[in-house]
Amino acid sequence: MVKQERSVRTRRALVLAAAEVFAADGYALASLTAISRRAGVSSGALHFHFASKDDLARAVEEDAARAVRELAERCAAAAGSPLQSLVDASAALLDAVVRDPVVRAGFRLSADPSRKNGAELLGWWHGRVRQFVLKAQRAGQLARDVSPDAATTVIAAATAGFEALGAADGTWLSGERLDQFWSLLLPPLAAPPGPAPAPTLAGPAPTPTLPGPAPTPSPPG
Question: Which of 1, 83, 211, 221 is such that its CA lies 20 to 30 A from the CA of 165?
Answer without folding.
Answer: 83
